[in-house]
Predict the 3D structure of the following.
Amino acid sequence: MTDSTGAGTAGAGDTDADPEAGVAFSRQMWADDEASRRLGMEALVIEQDHAVVRMPIREDMVNGHDICHGGFVFTLADSTFALACNSRGSVTVASGADITFTAPSRLGDVLVAEATLRSAFGRSGITDVTVKRESDDQIVAEFRGRSRSLRTP
């Protein structure tokens, strides 16, 4: 498997011929993702069409109801979604997303998000992300992201 340091040349190539190049592209995107890093996210798995990311809930992520702000849960799911849908080696962005919150998370919890590409058609895709609390596997949220691969010049 190619590590993130050698991923800079992966572009919008055909990863059916070289899936490792697509994964390397996604790893490089993650290495350059300052926002996710500053939120304490850690990528545990980056594979073609699949990713797993964890994030501890800190004091600055808890809202006035003493639960994790939904925006942080969404951001975790969105970052995991981005890894999965960019793992084919094309610059791919969200064209929309929906989230359903099913249980609260609190200060000290660790959330784990798992993304799986469900469907790819043309330059579009649908990726599902399940966010769970690590301590008891309680589902915290279900996220469905719609993606679009950009044409490169």
User: Anything to note?
Assistant: The chain has three helices and six strands. Confidence is low (pLDDT under 50) at residues 1-15. The longest strand covers residues 110-121.
